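Researcher: Please predict.
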Amino acid sequence: MSNVRHGERPIVVEETAGTKAYCQCGHSQKLPYCDGSHSRVGAGVGPMIVEVPAPGRKSICQCHQSASKPWCDGTHKQLPREQPTS
């Protein structure tokens, strides 16, 4: 069973070079990084492991619909927003 939380916009970070584990379940307390929460909540997905070749500003996708995951490509702007309940 999938228990994934989707964000409405990316998380922008000043990233360092090296291997990163980006959260794909949305439950991490260290977003955008994985803290292992996917195992605890039964998310059905694990982290996306990425080699970041050079430091710099990165936009990490949180809607999980980007064609260039884990990087944001603006897809979140095209998705329907949840309507608040009264």
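Model: The CA atoms of residues 11 and 60 lie 5 Å apart.
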